[in-house]
């Protein structure tokens, strides 16, 4: 801000919104907040971090309320009406800025925690869905895979349901490894014709003791009317091949913000018959979901059937989710978006200078002792 001209204070709100709208990452908006108190107030009061998050991940519009929890206790609000409103804006600013940082900095991993249900199982528990959690097709010298029951009709589909590692995940791709029966003549591959993925949450919390979970895999019914599916992927054709435990990868057109912690894998159609009985089977060796589980820094609490939920933000756990700084991607040749924005901003500042030079310099408050800066 050469000669003390602050465009945030001089220009109309719409023009300031247009200028700051060139920033695509809420983390950059947090850096803008470190420039001066007027910039910080403008960013927070206009909810710019939330606006960018909504643009990046439309599913965040389901967050009806944000609760910030420190030391595992929810703070007691005793502020006046005005201060309470500002405190709410600051809380949203911190939550959405931290959320975006975790989404862009965290290392992607397999987001599946456990298996919940299979629509059918041929030989339970030897061919349980639990086997699909293991990447190897052999465990303790025995074949490891899930198998459906045989069907005469090749159009009959199957469903596998899993619990994700967090109730809030950013998912980028799915991976499935169809099982190749190396103990059958001709080494047949029992794949489905296609696959589709759904994410969502249960209408009523799934409650069962750990000792009973394996039992439920064989007998409990988890039909669609017990879940709300908030996102469904395109239908992906499956290749009828299997190369040395290689997963088939299905990339989503755009990353999906999975709210609710439940995954459904829909295996569509059948290809391979078993020589023994002539029936069609689907057998799966391994299923993985690649993405970012946002626990323990974030959690969600479902509110109603309209998919609205409360976002729980644990600021003290953010660093536990992020990788060490030495492992974060860095580039020594290309400038950051914020630096590119700063360069282009000088042109705007010069225009403001030319327009308002006659008005004289302004005194800008640079007291940033309470800024929430995220590196």
Descriptive account of the structure:
It is built from 9 helices and 18 strands. The two termini are 22 Å apart. The protein has helices spanning 7-10, 13-20, 26-33, 37-45, 48-56, 81-105, 210-219, 318-321, 337-356, and strands at residues 63-68, 109-110, 112-118, 138-139, 142-143, 146-147, 158-164, 168-178, 192-202, 227-232, 236-237, 248-259, 262-270, 272-273, 280-281, 283-293, 298-302, 309-313. Strands 3, 7, 9, 10, 11 and 13 form a 6-stranded antiparallel beta sheet that branches. The protein folds into 2 domains: 2-106 and 322-359, no CATH class; 109-295, Galactose-binding domain-like (Jelly Rolls, Sandwich), CATH 2.60.120. A hairpin with a 6-residue loop joins β17 (298-302) and β18. With 375 residues, the chain is α+β, with helices and mostly antiparallel strands.
Give a quick summary of the entry.
The protein has 375 residues and is α+β, with helices and mostly antiparallel strands. The chain has nine helices and 18 strands. The protein folds into two domains: 2-106 and 322-359, no CATH class; 109-295, Jelly Rolls (Sandwich), CATH 2.60.120.
């Amino acid at each position: 801000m050469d000669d003390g001209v602050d465009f945030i204070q001089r220009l109309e709100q719409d023009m300031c919104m247009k200028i700051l709208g060139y920033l695509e990452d809420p983390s950059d908006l947090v850096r803008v907040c470190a420039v001066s108190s007027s910039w910080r107030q403008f960013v927070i009061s206009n909810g710019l971090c939330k606006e960018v998050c909504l643009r990046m991940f439309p599913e965040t519009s389901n967050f009806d309320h944000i609760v910030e929890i420190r030391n595992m206790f929810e703070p007691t609000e005793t502020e006046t009406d005005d201060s309470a409103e500002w405190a709410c804006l600051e809380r949203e600013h911190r939550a959405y800025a931290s959320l975006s940082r975790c989404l862009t900095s965290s290392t992607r991993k397999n987001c599946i925690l456990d298996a919940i249900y299979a629509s059918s199982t041929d030989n339970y528990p030897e061919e349980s869905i639990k086997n699909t959690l293991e990447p190897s097709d052999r465990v303790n010298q025995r074949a490891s895979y899930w198998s459906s029951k045989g069907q005469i009709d090749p159009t009959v589909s199957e469903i596998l349901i899993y619990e994700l590692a967090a109730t809030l995940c950013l998912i980028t791709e799915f991976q499935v490894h169809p099982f190749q029966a190396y103990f059958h003549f001709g080494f047949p591959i029992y794949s489905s014709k296609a696959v589709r993925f759904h994410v969502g949450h249960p209408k009523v919390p799934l409650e069962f003791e750990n000792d009973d979970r394996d039992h439920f895999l064989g007998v409990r019914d988890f039909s669609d009317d017990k879940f709300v599916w908030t996102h469904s992927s395109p239908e992906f054709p499956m290749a009828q091949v299997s190369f040395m435990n290689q997963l088939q990868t299905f990339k989503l057109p755009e990353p999906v913000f999975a709210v609710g912690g439940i995954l459904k894998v829909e295996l569509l159609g059948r290809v391979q018959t078993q020589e023994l009985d002539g029936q069609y089977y689907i057998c799966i060796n391994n299923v993985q979901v690649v993405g970012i589980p946002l626990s323990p820094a974030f959690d969600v609490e479902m509110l109603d059937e309209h998919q609205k939920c409360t976002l729980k933000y644990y600021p003290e756990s953010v660093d536990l989710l992020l990788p060490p700084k030495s492992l974060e991607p860095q580039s020594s040749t290309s400038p950051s978006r914020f630096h590119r924005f700063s360069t282009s901003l000088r042109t705007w500042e010069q225009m403001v200078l030319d327009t308002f030079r006659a008005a004289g310099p302004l005194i800008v408050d640079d007291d940033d002792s309470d800024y929430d800066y995220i590196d």
